[in-house]
Design brief:
Elements: H1 3-16, H2 27-33, H3 63-75, H4 81-98, H5 102-106, E1 111-112, E2 120-121, H6 127-139, H7 141-161, H8 168-187, H9 189-193, H10 197-203, H11 210-225, H12 237-247
Antiparallel strand pairs: 1-2
Helix pairs in contact: 1-3, 6-11, 7-8, 11-12
């Protein structure tokens, strides 16, 4: 496919996957549902929204998806629909395994979600693992921040709509707090991620001394490549440390452990 065809396919996908404001179903599913029930009006689609007012379902395209497409066009690297859907499926799988939104996840200080595996207690993670996990959050702070903002606004909407929700003044205070967080995320996502409860729990107790921190980083570098981590072979610490010493002059940063 040409770049123009990929862009056109992405635009169609954004329109067809636009969620219903009533039930969250996609526009494509809504169209497929029309006419399947002989007792329903011809415009009736994915949900009962607007039945009394005799108006069809309302679908609003995902603004974040549209912004992501524009950013990719400007950068000259546009993902295909299949790539976008694969990443979305992975995010959903991680969220399902976590059982929490990014808003809830970052505001707790007890558990970490390794890639594709069950939640683990942060208290059970060794320092090198916690160090690498904190680096993972820093590197992805901008993307995580965008998902956090969306989850935070959805959470606030649900709380305010609840019969047991906060008073008007409390709701206004919550909204101001979230807006302030959104501003901090947009301004400096790495600084923001470092003050979240999850990040603070990961780095708690890690050495402040640069020499000790470098020693911990060296162990993290080793553990990121050690075949013993996945149980596939015996640990080759001495060999890997020797290789690290040879590459130290040319190495930049700390290779990330595949979490």
């Amino acid at each position: 496919m040409t770049v123009a065809e990929v862009i056109a396919a992405r635009r169609r996908h954004i329109q067809e996957s636009a969620p219903c404001v009533g039930c969250g179903g996609s526009l494509a599913d809504c169209k497929a549902a029309r006419g399947t029930d002989p007792t329903a009006p011809p415009w009736f689609g994915c949900c009962a929204r607007g039945v009394q007012a005799s108006i069809p379902c309302q679908h609003e395209p995902d603004a974040q998806a549209a912004l992501a497409l524009l950013a990719e066009i400007e950068a000259g690297e546009v993902r295909t629909v299949e790539q976008v859907e694969a990443e979305r499926a992975e995010r959903k799988a991680r969220a399902a395994a976590r059982g929490m939104s990014w808003f809830e996840y970052l505001n707790q200080d007890r558990q970490w979600q390794p890639n594709g595996r069950p939640l683990v207690e942060i208290a059970d993670m060794d320092p090198a693992w916690r160090y690498n996990a904190s680096r993972w959050l820093e590197k992805r702070a901008a993307k995580i921040g965008a998902r956090y903002m969306l989850a935070a606004h959805l959470w606030l909407t649900a709380v305010i709509a609840s019969p047991l929700g906060p008073s008007e003044s409390s709701a206004d205070s919550l909204e101001r707090d979230i807006e302030q967080q959104c501003f901090e995320i947009a301004t400096n996502p790495v600084t923001w991620i470092r003050v979240t409860a999850l990040y603070r729990a990961l780095v708690a107790g890690l050495p402040d001394c640069s020499v000790q921190l470098e020693a911990l980083a060296a162990h993290a570098r080793h553990w990121s490549t050690c075949p013993a981590r996945k149980g596939g072979d015996e640990c080759r610490c001495d060999q890997l440390r020797a290789d690290d010493d040879e590459r130290k002059a040319a190495a930049s940063g700390v290779p990330e452990w595949t979490i």
